[in-house]
Amino acid sequence: MSRKCDICGKGQTSGNNVSHSNRHTRRKWNANIQTVRVSENGAIKRLNVCTKCLRAGKVTRAV
User: Fold this and answer.
1) How far is CA 40 from the centre of its chain?
2) How does pLDDT run across 9-30, given as a tens digit for each residue?
3) Of 7, 17, 33, 60, which one has the greatest count of Cβ atoms within 10 A?
């Protein structure tokens, strides 16, 4: 499953873990992506959608 929202394009971001001794190691933050059944023009598709888009009502879920 891709780590990118099909609606807004939000994806994985990267940065550093910083320890108490100020050592830096690379890390990543994954977006909260859910696979959702969506009805578009009468057809049912599966989309990868972030939870922010789900809560904002940017997609209409299929029943």
Assistant:
1) 20
2) 999 999 999 999 999 999 999 9
3) 33
